[in-house]
């Protein structure tokens, strides 16, 4: 689930367009990056990842709580995500991410892979694989959450103790 959240945060990168630059004036590098994004169904994968993320997030709440309320909350989150992360509005940001990370030739190699049989299969399975991976992470975290809680409590106690010691050692200001 943390991976999906990080993906959503990453979508907020700066646009490669200068103020007033027309999107029809894409460079060759930008066009190839857009071709990759289209060939990998990035806009659909983002929607699927959002749906899966909220599904996993609200699954636990639905077990013990009001299922109708949980379903409404999930629907609101999905609707919010669809509004905030509209493909048309983040398209140029995503192109910039890929043009910053890959050369034009590398993007062409990625397109060749993702348009191959195994590449298409990886695209189709990615949301499911990400969800399964998130579930593994969630189960492991739940298994060891008491240990993590204790570690955090220990750090906080040490910090508070050190802060209290520092106050006791400071001389009072004379008035």
Tell me what you see in this structure:
The chain is mainly alpha-helical and 175 residues long. The protein has a domain at 27-124. The chain has eight helices and no strands. The protein has helices spanning 2-10, 28-39, 42-64, 67-84, 87-101, 104-114, 117-143, 145-169. The longest helix is centred in the C-terminal third of the chain and has 27 residues, at 117-143. The radius of gyration is 23 Å and the shape is extended. It starts with a helix and ends in a 6-residue tail after the last helix. Residues 1-21 have low confidence and may be disordered.
Structural class: mainly alpha
- State the helicity in percent bands: over 70%
Mean pLDDT: 80
Work out the radius of gyration.
23 Å
Assembly level: single chain
Q: What general form does the structure show? A: extended
Secondary-structure element order, as H and E? HHHHHHHH
Percent in strands: under 5%
Strands, helices and their partners?
Blueprint: H1 2-10, H2 28-39, H3 42-64, H4 67-84, H5 87-101, H6 104-114, H7 117-143, H8 145-169
Helix pairs in contact: 2-5, 2-6, 3-4, 3-7
